[in-house]
Amino acid sequence: MVAVHPAKPSARAPRPARRRARDGSLGESDLVDLEAVAAGIQACRRCDLWRDATQGVPGLGPAGAALMIVGEQPGDHEDLQGVPFVGPAGRLLDRAMAEAGVARDRVFVTNAVKHFKHEPRGKRRLHKTPDRGEVQACRWWLDAERRLVRPKVVLALGATAVRAVFGKALPIGKTRGQRQALDGGEQGLVSWHPSFLLRIPDPDARDRAYAELVADLKQAWRMAG
Ligand code: SF4
After folding, report:
1. pTM value?
2. Residue 57 CA to ligand 1 centre (angstroms)
3. Given Cys at both, which of 15, 22, 43, 79 links 116, Cβ 3.0 to 4.6 Å?
């Protein structure tokens, strides 16, 4: 995969912009490109999730990508590396994208929430699902990425991404495969989050869900093409 990063995780906004990102007064007009968004995320204090995270994890991919894929939040690997979808779920997504014929380096991948929410368990950091307020607070950054990337299709993976993209809950099993117009003019689709697939104990059920994810990626790529 060709890594196309809009800004290095260490990207820093000019001092006044950092301060305004912290106090929440940064405006849409300040976010002129994906680099400004990435820097703003590092300084963001819109909710408390930044406190226990290593860094914010902005989206990855080219501005102008026709397909945007939205997951839930960074996991342990993503938090340490500052890059989305690089852990076990990311590897599964890579495999599914390759099977679906999706060119990973032409897709913008991001998360609904940009800082890793977790709780310590011994030496491990266990994932915790972001709550509604955190998703709402972080939607500001996802909306900024959508404005700047201007994708034709947004594929939301999992319940948290669905809530952030569509502004409401949708039953994924019943609505996957159905395109829905989004406020920004994009077409929206939903599918399973790869980390959900990894937790399905029954191998047959897991294979079925994986096949559905591949089919949904194929559909999204076709619509974006
Ligand atoms: S999770 Fe989102 S809203 Fe909360 S501090 Fe991080 S970037 Fe800001």
Report:
1. 0.92
2. 10
3. 79
